[in-house]
Automatic annotation (TrEMBL):
SUPFAM superfamilies: Glutamine synthetase/guanido kinase. The keyword Ligase applies. PANTHER family: GAMMA-GLUTAMYLPUTRESCINE SYNTHETASE, TYPE-1 GLUTAMINE SYNTHETASE 2. Gene3D superfamilies: Glutamine synthetase, N-terminal domain, Glutamine synthetase/guanido kinase, catalytic domain. It holds the Pfam family Gln-synt_C. This is Glutamine synthetase. It comes from Myriangium duriaei CBS 260.36. Keywords: ATP-binding, Kinase, Ligase, Nucleotide-binding, Transferase. GO terms for biological process: biogenic amine metabolic process; glutamine biosynthetic process.
Amino acid sequence: MTISDDPSALSLDDLPELLKDDISVKVAGCDIDGVLRGKLMSKKKFLSVAKDGFGFCSVIFGWDMHDQTYFRELKISNAENGYRDIVAQIDLSSYRRIPWEDNVPFFLVSFRDPDGGSLSACPRSLLERTSAKLEKAQISALAGAEYEFYQFRAPSNSELPVSERNSSATAKFLQSNPAHHLPSLTEGMFGYSLTRPIQNQDYYYGIFDACRKFRCDIEGWHTESGPGVFEAALEYGEIKAMADKAALFKLTVKSIGSKYGITPCFMAKPRHGLPGNSGHMHVSLVDSNKKNLFARESADPSPPFPDLAHVSDIGRHFLAGLLDGLPDVMPILAPTINSYKRLVENFWAPVTVSWGLEHRAASIRLIAPPTASPKATRFEIRVPGADTNPFLVLSTILGLGWRGVEKKLEVTLPPLGKGEDTGGASDKGLRLAKSLKEATDRFARKDSVAREVFGDDFVDHYAGTREHEIRLWDEAVTDWEVKRYIETV
């Protein structure tokens, strides 16, 4: 075989030939916030650990996205266990080369417990465990990811080259300047514009080309409505590979942005009064013959709701599972304090447990005949923002949906009608959490669906990380507070 053509067939015996012209290898794994943490290692070291994995400091599951240890120490990594090592298991099938780093070879890892077995809090391992439940039934899940994101020009400094005007320069600028002083990549509301990308042509095409070379291919790439906002739809495929691609897409955009003095921003709501950044996920199930299991052979003459006429029984159960569990998993779909600034009424963002055929205001958009072909039948989960961890989001969708299939849950909530918006008088769906605290309290409670789907170890760990985020917010003094109260109280 030609080794690089099919990484899924890569074996340990192939590595010496694959890396014969290299002196180093880069490896990375995903933390709980969706940040890739990794290192560069010598080829000799890599080859020596390729089979059994290597020790990786567990502190990446003991601190937050800014490397601050959690206020309440959690089970996996803490002072009592000495922030011990966990095992990073190299996934040979994840092989690719980083085109913007002289094509250095790159592999993803999944984290394992040093005592053996899958690590409860490892996002990539969680998706592996969730997918395994379906694979036992000879069913595979397919997925697609869509990300919107703002882009800002890093503060200029004539003494620095453009490549140094990167996210670090932006972070330093924000220490002493208000966020609204950051200039957008482009100005105005120009969704699907053919002219706006030409203003940053090398950057725009550079991301598209880099994603192709880095095996996180973009299917659709355009401007979205908002100053400096782009949207990418990643190529549909197997769900575990899609999570990898989604995480690597963010890495690609941020890396290429640094070379052009641009700071991409995947926050859910970076600008007041403007649309937020979504991270919609599409999911379907197929059998061993790649037949879509959500599609019905022929239209049901008496469906529970007309919107479900072309949806199979397994598709209906899957949808019912999503609707039943959605309120209990909101900290995963909206993981930050800022996430809930996006999930407000009248901003094209879903705020209730809701669904509908081709309904873009609903939490779950059903894509099915007669508006789509049977083989394209799928669910688009529209609650997640661009700030989410793709491994956790896809694990959640798959876990909730499969629970619905196993329990043969039925859809009892009527769909949103055309012209109906979420949160309106006719919307019968439960209002989703309005804050991270409300969401985390529901997620962590003893009878939470999240505990049933993911187990106590994961829920306790993840809830602890969100409680940390909430406490930091509770202690923060914002510019809004100072401006509002400094003189008048």
